[in-house]
Specification:
With about 350 residues, the chain is mainly alpha-helical. The chain has 13 helices and two strands, in the order ααααββααααααααα. It has one domain.
């Protein structure tokens, strides 16, 4: 919205700053951060009053989680609110990629909100049926995949790009849409599975969001793509503003989610943020790189899949408990130890993902 102040510029005044994506990204970050600090306490108070007993705690979960009973959930509303406000305020609203990513984020956030509401209202760990969540998620992702294909330049539309092998494109044709659906829904649910300890999911989400934001800015500039020899996707640079809002909103939320958490993200936040990461990857033609940058989320999801399949086949468990962060809890690792070590892993994976921009 503030971008339109450039109409008042003569090229040498303060209004000219609004032309620059980096300046507006900084504004989005600060807006989202201040939003989190301002609205965090009143939102948490409202959630406490309205939810009563807070998020239900699994009876078969780690013993240490019993002490978390009564903690309110739906804290993702703080992140989503900060992200939406900062993006609408600082991004160019004539950019299709911005609206596509916002559409996915808000839609998955709505699914998560419905799931959280069902859980706290019924005081049951079972919210919206999984099949319903998946059906809605795939429908939203299908729209986003087709939307992205229409926004991409003709030479990239319906194509799958690869890191390192930068001259290689795989023409998926109409299969690009189901591929994008898998990427977006997979990312959303992987982040959802990771959100099981105080502060565990939000930092890797911010790291992945920052990495994808840098990639979006790079592939949206023809001079950068010429130097890096990657595919030019005009218009994606504006996604950096969305990513900056994600980081600011995430930090504002982490202030209250740091152990011991005053509020949980809930599915409202985890599904929204995971969907956002998937949507950015699809928009920037870096779906494969998302699997590297978000490798922590991939491992969390795989641990659940392996556990379920192996148990159905043998009646035995591979892990003491899935997702894998609960396995380490059962082994006696302290919660802060697990969280910080997983943060470190996410940073390492992000650097590897960024390195793919230059490696050929």
């Amino acid at each position: 919205m503030l971008y339109w102040l450039t109409a008042l510029s003569d090229g040498g005044d303060v209004f000219n700053l609004f032309r620059y994506i980096t300046f507006r990204a900084g504004g989005a970050f600060l807006t989202a951060l201040v939003f989190g600090f301002l609205f965090g306490p009143p939102l948490i108070n409202v959630l406490r009053r309205t939810q009563g007993k807070g998020q239900p705690i699994r009876s078969d979960g780690p013993e240490g989680h019993v002490a978390k009973a009564g903690t309110p959930t739906m804290g993702g509303l703080l992140i989503v609110g900060a992200l939406l406000t900062s993006t609408l305020l600082w991004a160019r609203l004539d950019n299709g990629y911005v609206w596509m990513v916002l559409f996915v984020t808000m839609s998955f956030g709505a699914i998560g909100f419905a799931d959280d509401y069902a859980k706290v209202s019924k005081q049951n760990v079972n919210g919206v049926p999984g099949k319903v969540r998946l059906l809605l998620g795939f429908a939203i992702a299908g729209v986003a995949g087709f939307w992205a294909a229409q926004l991409h330049p003709p030479e990239l539309s319906w194509q799958l790009a690869f890191p390192v092998y930068k001259d290689t494109l795989l023409n998926l044709g109409v299969l690009f849409v189901p591929f994008a659906m898998i990427v977006i829904v997979g990312a959303a649910n992987s982040v959802n599975l990771t959100d099981g300890l105080d502060g565990l999911a939000i930092m890797p989400v911010m790291v992945a969001g920052a990495t994808l934001g840098i990639i979006a800015y790079a592939v949206g500039r023809v001079d950068f793509t010429d130097y890096l020899d990657v595919h030019y996707v005009p218009g994606t640079g504006e996604i950096l503003i969305f990513s900056a809002g994600l980081i600011g909103g995430g930090l504002g939320f982490l202030w209250y989610n740091a152990p011991p958490a005053a509020v949980f993200m809930g599915d409202t936040g985890s599904l929204a943020l995971g969907g956002a990461l998937g949507a950015i990857a699809v928009a920037t033609k870096h779906e494969v790189v998302l699997a590297i940058v978000g490798g922590l989320f991939v491992v969390e999801a795989l641990s659940v899949i392996i556990q379920v399949l192996y148990f159905k086949r043998t009646g035995k468990r591979v892990f003491l408990m899935a997702p894998i962060h609960h396995h380490y809890e059962k082994k006696g690792w302290a919660e802060p130890t697990i969280v910080i070590r997983f943060w470190i892993i996410s940073l390492i994976l992000a650097l590897i993902g960024l390195a793919t921009l230059k490696v050929r």
